Structures are given as C-alpha cells and as structure tokens.
Amino acid sequence: IKMNKDAQMRSAINQKLIETGEREGLKELLRAKLIECGWKDQLKAHCKGIDFPK
C-alpha cells in the first residue's frame, strides 16, 4: 500500500512540475550543476576503464 501511495505522490508531483513548466527548468539546473562539478568527465573516465561486452 505504501509503495502505491508513493507512486501516486510521485506521479502527482511530476504532473504538477510538467504543468507549471518547472520540470524542464529543474532538468536544466541539474544538468548545469553536474557539468559544473565535473561529473560527466568523471563518468567518462570511469567508463574508459571498464571492458564492456561487444
């Protein structure tokens, strides 16, 4: 029951963010902060050291 309530709450919040246009703004802010802290570069460096199956 709790999981269903959590899913409903997440859905309602997501819908409200979409309706108000804030979702895109939050995504852009997150993207900018991740770039600012070098997360993308760190992830690339980490992935270069992993042998992925081909």
From TrEMBL:
GO MF, any single term: transcription coactivator activity
Record-linked Pfam families: EnY2 (PF10163)
GO biological process, one term: mRNA export from nucleus
One CC-aspect GO term: nuclear pore
Name under which the protein is recorded: ENY2 factor
Biological classification of the source: Eukaryota, Metazoa, Chordata, Craniata, Vertebrata
